[in-house]
Design goal:
The chain is 54% helix and 13% strand. It contains 5 helices and 3 strands. A hairpin with a 2-residue loop joins strand 2 (70-75) and strand 3 (78-83).
């Protein structure tokens, strides 16, 4: 399998692709939903809430954090996570622009 040639695409196309990827796993969606529901920082209770092993939760949190949708603070031996509202709004704007493109009403489409 060849390497992805992301450099041949625009920054916007690469951003949209990364955002879509982060929503490509139900565990990440569940984590985000839980963070929104609590509307507060979460410190360590995601394992019980989501039902996956700690290493798996940690990997999904890492993906969300790398993309900037969540942020975390170290408190003692645990890390607390919450939605990064600034980056969340920017992601929503980027995705809305992409998803709100209209399809023409031409009938000559296959």
């Amino acid at each position: 399998m060849g390497l992805a040639k992301t450099e041949m695409f625009t920054d916007q196309q690469n951003k949209i692709s990364l955002f879509a990827k982060v929503f490509g796993h139900p565990a990440r969606v569940a984590i985000l939903q839980h963070l929104f529901k609590l509307d507060n920082c979460v410190c360590g209770d995601l394992v019980n809430e989501i039902g996956l092993a700690q290493p798996t939760i940690s990997q999904h949190l890492k993906e969300l954090k790398n993309l900037g949708l969540i942020k975390g603070n170290v408190e003692g031996t645990s890390v607390c996570y919450c939605i990064d509202t600034k980056n969340w709004r920017a992601m929503k704007e980027t995705m809305s622009e992409f998803l709100n493109q209209d399809i023409s009403n031409k009938s000559n489409c296959c």
